[in-house]
Amino acid sequence: MTILVVRDAELLVTCDDDGREIPGGWVAIDSGMVSAVGEPGSEPAADRTISARGCLVTPGLINTHHHMYQNLTRSHAPALSGTLFQWLQTLYPLWARLDEEAAHVSAWIGLAELALGGCTTSTDHLYVHPAGGGDVLAAEIAAAVDLGMRFHPTRGSMSLSQKDGGLPPDSVVQDDDTILAASEDAVARFHDRSHGAMVRIALAPCSPFSVTKGLMSSTAELAERLDVRLHTHLCEDRDEDAFCLEKFGQRPIDYFEEVGWGSSRSWIAHCVQPNAAEIERLGRWGTGAAHCPSSNMILGVGLAPVRELRAAGVPVGIGCDGSASADSASLWLEARMALLQGKLRSGPQSMGARDALSMATREGAACLGRQGEIGELSVGACGDVAVWSLDGVRFAGALSDPVEAWLRCGPVSARDTIVHGRPVVEGGQLVHPAQDEMLVRHRAAAMRLTAL
Ligand SMILES: [Zn+2]
Q: Which positions ≥6 away from 204 have C-beta within 8 Å?
């Protein structure tokens, strides 16, 4: 049994049910799980101690939407100024070259980048499974295991190609039976239902314009039978509204309900375009939303109605998205973007740093169906912690509120990122020794994908 104690925090923010914040506080992690949290002077004996003097300590951040393979085509010059649909159609042919090596190195680098930004749990929406590309889902899970990150990959899918009126080319779609069989197989092989699990699977048809309606319904039924979560893109931009009205004769939320997804089992990425009545329905269903502020701005799709969604009871997590739309993968940056967008859209009093932190932790946990288990520092929760230095030039003069300072000053990365009681980042550096080697492999894979 190993006990790790992170102590002497400038401020320990638990994000627990009571919103407890403890000046000088500490958190103890025993065998991967939080065993105690407390006031200064009551620290337990430890096998290892990490001083957080001068630091803000928060739960590790949770990334609720991402496409890690896209970091192989980051900032791709021919796709920099397109709308969502134009951007996708430029990149689909490159992504059709994805294989196991490319999936592995992109997930490894993607998760490393997230860890450096204080993230401890990430999902990944992997919806490209090219014929002959091998087992790309297993390849990315191996990367998470190697790094020690908590991982919620989804078995994504596309089944509606251009010949059937969809957006993607034939080369990146699969038929419904293949997708459903692979989904069931992924759950059987990788989904860990235990408390504190490091890997869980969700099922994730990509979007209304890239899958058949039948696949959406069948996937919802399969998720119900297997008791796993459902994820998709929804209400991202106006082209999607127009597509759904033209092809299905209904708006995206009506489509979503009709195919059996309107429930607390689902969380959706973006959620920029719902109207007031649709927001109310999402809240009633308990469907979660992954807010991706940078991606929404880069693709110009709009400002998500975050205040209204949260007021309606929708858990709103934060997602990096990308990494070819929002080309960086820092949850700190996305939390800050959420703060700024919230103020811009709904007024300066509508959102503070604590709201953004809650979204990046507790509400993200709710999106992933792990409320109380991750995203908070309370006894019995996972030992996932981010330690943020508040020292130096960037924080000079910020004396009144460490949480607001954390998100308004900066930019910052995590000093230490601890997952399941094990440091993945220490002193701002990845603990795993293979970073340089993985960057070389990543570059080779990226060159292969983007070759003319
Ligand atoms: Zn996305």
A: 125, 127, 154, 155, 156, 157, 230, 231, 232
Chain-centre distance for alpha carbon 293: 12
Residue 371 tokens read as 């409320």
- Look-up: residue for tokens 């996972």? 382
Q: What is the secondary structure of 31-46 as a DSSP string?
A: TTEEEEEE-TT-PPP-
| CB distance 12 to 21 below 8 Å | yes
Q: So what's the pLDDT on residue 324? A: 61
Nearest to 209 by CA among 258, 173, 175, 183: 173
pLDDT digits (tens, 9 = 90+) for 357-395: 999 999 999 999 999 999 999 999 999 999 999 999 999
What's the 3-state SS for 292-318? CHHHHHHCCCCCCCHHHHHHCCCCEEE
How many whole angstroms from 193 Cα to the centroid of ligand 1?
25
**In angstroms, rounded to a whole number, what is the distance separating the alpha carbons of residues 382 and 419?**
8
Percent of the chain with pLDDT over 90: 88
pLDDT digits (tens, 9 = 90+) for 254-291: 999 999 999 999 999 999 999 999 999 999 999 999 99
Ligand 1 centroid, distance to 329 Cα (angstroms): 13
Q: What confidence category does residue 186 fall into, taking pLDDT thresholds of 50, 70 and 90?
A: very high
Beta pairing class for 422-426 and 429-430:
antiparallel
Average pLDDT over residues 76-80: 87
Q: For residue 32, what are its two tokens?
A: 């991967």
Give distance in angstroms: CA of 59 to centre of ligand 1: 24
Would you say the pTM of this structure is higher than 0.85?
yes
Cβ atoms of 123 and 66 closer than 8 Å? yes
Cα–ligand 1 centroid distance for 157 (angstroms): 12
- How many whole angstroms from 21 Cα to the centroid of ligand 1? 33
